[in-house]
Amino acid sequence: MSSVAVLFIEVFKLLMSVSLVVFELGGPGLAFRSIRMHFTQNPFDLAKAAVPSLIYTVQNNLMFYSLEKLNAPVQQVLYQMKVITTAGLGVLMLGKSLTTTQWSACFALAIGVALVQFPREDVNFSLEAFGTDQVKGFIAVLGACCTSGFAGVWIQKMLQQTSASIWVRNVQLAFFGALSSLGVAIVQDGERIIEEGFTQGFNGRVVGVILMTAVGGLLCAVMLKYAGATHGCFSTAMSIILTSLLSQFLFADFSLDWLFVAGSVVAIGASLVFALGTPTWLTVSHGTSSVPRKL
Question: What does pTM read for this prediction?
C-alpha cells in the first residue's frame, strides 16, 4: 500500500533526524531538551512545520500513484516540470527575480517534457482519451510538481530564517509528516490495515525504496538550506539518466526511442542551464571582452 509506504518514510525520517540531533549535541539528554524546547517554546513557529509536512504527504502519494500509471523514466522526466513551479513560487513567495536565461530554460524544459509525453501512436482526442492511465499519471505528476514547488520554497524560507538547527527542524517536519501520513493511510486503506496489518506486501525492495526515499528527504533539506529549492535539478538530471539506463538494461520494462532521448536531453540541459547559467563556450566575443549569449 503506497499510503503505508509514505507513512514509514516519515517514521524513518523522524528516527534518523532524532539520531542526528543526538549526534550533533553530543548526547540524548541535550538532544531531547533541545527538541522539547523547539516544540513548546513558539507554537506559531512550530505550526509552520505542519504546512509542508501535509503538502509532502500529498506529494508522495501523488508520486506513488503516478508510478502506477507511467513508466519510471517517463515519470522522472515529467517530474522536471517542478523546476518551473518551484521557480514561479520562488518569485512569488521569496521575492526572487529570474534572468532571461532562466526563464528561457523553463520554457525549454516544458518543450522537453512535451516531447517525452508526446503520444507514440494515433490518439483519438475524445473524452475517453482523458481516462487513460497516461493522462491520469500526467495529472498526478503535475500535482506533485505544484506541491513539491510550494513545499520546497516554504521549507527553504523556514530553514534559512530560523535559529533551530536543520536536524531539529527535520524532527518537526517528520513528526507532522508522520501524523498526516497516518491519517491518509487510515482514510485510504483503513480496512486493509485492520485485516492484514501495516506491513502487508512488504519485501526487501519495498524497504529499500522506503529507506532511500527517507535519506533522500534529509539530503533535500540540506540542499534547501544551503543552496535553495531551484538547485535540486543537479541530482534530478542525473536521476533521469540512471533511471532510464536501469529500466532499459536491467529490468527491460522500458524501450528508449528518439522522442524520449530528445526530450530527456532538452529537459536535462534546461535544468542545468537554469541552475548554472549559460555555458562559457556559448559566449560571444566583442573585442577583448565576452558577453554571455542569451538563450
Answer: 0.62
Placement of cell 502487508 in the chain: 200
Q: What percent of the chain has pLDDT over 90?
A: 1
Give the distance, in angstroms, between the CA of residue 252 and the centroid of all CA atoms in the same chain. 25
Cell of 67: 508510478
Tens of pLDDT, residue by residue over 35-91, are 888 888 777 777 777 787 778 778 878 888 888 888 777 777 777 777 778 778 878
**Cα–Cα dist 139/196, whole Å:** 31
Distance CA 195, CA 30 (A): 41
Cell numbers given for 275: 541552475
**Which residues, in sequence order, are CB contacts of 190 under 8 Å at separation 6+?**
none
- Residue extents of the structural domains in the chain: 2-292
Nearest CA-CA partner of 224 in 102, 72, 52: 52
Phi-psi label, residue 201: left if phi above 0, alpha if psi -120 to 50, beta otherwise = left
| Nearest Cα to Cα of residue 116 among 11, 20, 257 | 257
